[in-house]
């Protein structure tokens, strides 16, 4: 009986603690043996329910903390990107390279690619960084194929790798690149960069040399083609979505109008490119090229 009494007291105490009931609550008073057995069963179930609730709340807190940590990482990554701190961003995101978070992975691919494009990056390092960027973009795509930024950066990385694989590979990958850029636009029609990249795709095939067109005809029964007019529409759409968002888009508009023999509009956009605030090496190169082209008008 003493053992039963101790057991009864233990479950009464645990149940009271679980339900936050005051000492001596009627619901915890156990009477005859039948009531005792019934009471113990209820107590056990209640205690298990409490343990489940406690575990669930604990997991929810951990999950919430994970979200907070993720958001902090993304906020810092985006701050460094906007500040043009390419190397700092790369080193920061390297700490999370084992992550399966798509938001981190595509940003890491972008950081690797941006670092590869710096003039201070050695040739052998540039190649390694570009292939590594593609690896992270592929990993992100395998996790989430419905994220616009994943498709955009996967297309960019494929194009970059094509520079090392040769003309045949670059042309062969062209339809793949176009497909991912179109998917990015479909998933997010308000991303100006995706329109700019589609404009570059059209520009590159509008300006193919005779030899490159022949290579395309060998690789495809219907080789990829485009026109400067089509490229112009994408560049203008990018500017419509986000005016002055990117110095390269301003330069691309100026160069496209030059190809279309529209000197007035060419001068307008090249001047905007020349006057664009230079925050990155890319912006500085745009200023130089725009200045050179304006001298020729």
Automatic annotation (TrEMBL):
Compartment annotation: Cytoplasm, Cytoskeleton
GO cellular component: mitochondrion; mitotic spindle pole; spindle microtubule
Keyword Signal: yes
Signal peptide feature range: 1-20
UniProt KW keywords: Cytoplasm, Cytoskeleton, Repeat, Signal, TPR repeat
Listed Pfam families: RMD1-3
Record-linked InterPro entries: RMD1-3_a_helical_rpt, TPR-like_helical_dom_sf
Any GO MF annotation of the entry: microtubule binding
Family: Belongs to the RMDN family.
Subunit-level organization: Interacts with microtubules.
Official protein name in the record: Regulator of microtubule dynamics protein 1
Originating species: Microcaecilia unicolor
